[in-house]
Specification:
Number of helices: 4
Shape: elongated
Oligomer: single chain
Strand content: over 45%
Length: 350
């Protein structure tokens, strides 16, 4: 190639390179401008939510925020989050740190990462209650409709300590799923799954402190309306509120319980319902009730004798007890054999 032709070729290649580099740089700058614009809308939405809560008599605050997530998503880190409703039961939610993630193309699906202590507090008359959870790894998600009303809520906490005393309960994994499935009457699909649940030392007994698995899957029907937990539970009960469980599973040492059933509360807020299915290890369960002080030794002997007549052998050769398990008139029974009295879930208002 002649020197002149070589120079023309080299110049053309340089020009093409400059154009290509400029196009790439322009695209990156344009994408960053779009990301910054969308991130600004997220931050504006947070400020608007804070102002709206104040107008409605509530409080929403945070100690600090920090944007992030570029280039794949919009992320907002909030430290020292607090939301409170001073009226009624005085609900209060606090989070040590949460990070909210949103995809650029979808504002209706928000994923949260939870760090440090997360708590829910409320008042019951003059008594304050606080439920706290501290997960080693915590994630949650929220799906909204076009009007920003929630459709699905999910939480997945691993290595979590929870309860009114954080050292009281520990679980390898706790999962919660809620999904709205109807408006008239209001209905929710509910799923709670807990694995490797360690109970407090004071609850140690014949079955040990480790519950291997507890699963509850079903549908809850009825409205929850009221300024206090008692008022909301009463409104739900009086409107025919009920939870229909399609799957109930408990594995606690020798006790294996499985089946389905329904649950509501009576006028004293005591559990009211029935369950069908099968129970393996009934005798061990009765021993645990005696150790916990829920049954007297003489009652346990009578209960074991009555239930022994109902046992059957399944296709695996295991001795199982066919249910029903009923909660009625403040008493829990298996096949009409009374076990122990049931306490109210909440203290009824006088």
């Amino acid at each position: 190639m002649e020197p002149a032709a070589r120079r023309r070729y080299t110049g053309a290649m340089r020009l093409r390179f400059v154009f290509l580099a400029g196009a790439i740089l322009g695209g990156l700058l344009g994408y960053y401008a779009l990301w910054s614009h969308l991130m600004g809308r997220v931050e504006a939405g947070l400020l608007a939510f804070q102002a709206q809560q104040q107008l409605q008599g509530r409080s929403f605050s945070y100690r600090a925020w920090q944007r992030g997530g570029f280039p794949y998503r919009l992320s907002l880190r909030l430290d020292g989050v607090s939301w409170s409703e001073p009226r009624g039961a005085g609900w209060k939610i606090e989070s040590e740190t949460l990070v909210a993630h949103q995809q650029l193309w979808s504002s209706q699906h928000i994923v949260f990462e939870l760090f440090g202590a997360q708590s829910l507090a409320w008042r019951d008359g003059g008594t304050e209650h606080k439920f706290s959870a501290t997960p080693e790894r915590g994630r949650a998600s929220l799906v909204l409709d076009g009007a920003d009303r929630w459709l699905r809520i999910a939480a997945d906490l691993q290595g979590v300590r929870f309860g009114q005393a954080l050292a009281g309960y520990e679980a390898g994994r706790l999962q919660l799923h809620l999904r709205q499935v109807g408006n008239v009457p209001p209905a929710l699909d509910v799923a709670v799954q807990i694995t490797d649940l360690d109970l407090p030392a004071e609850l140690d007994g014949p079955l040990g402190r480790r519950i291997a698995a507890l699963n509850l899957i079903g549908k809850q029907t009825g409205p929850w309306l009221g300024a206090s937990p008692q008022a909301a539970l009463a409104a739900w009960r009086d409107a025919g509120g009920i939870v229909e469980f399609s799957n109930i599973l408990l594995h606690w040492d020798a006790v294996h319980l499985s089946g389905d059933g329904s649950l509501t509360v009576d006028k004293q807020f005591r559990p009211l319902g029935a369950m069908g299915g099968r129970l393996l290890g009934a005798a061990a369960g009765i021993d645990a009730l005696v150790a916990a002080g829920r049954m007297k030794p003489a009652e346990a002997v009578a209960a074991k004798a009555a239930l022994a007549k109902l046992h059957k052998t399944d296709d695996k050769g295991e001795t199982v007890l066919p249910l029903p398990l009923t909660a009625q008139n403040g008493l829990l029974s298996i096949a009409n054999v009374p076990l122990f009295a049931l306490a109210p879930l909440l203290t009824p208002k006088p």
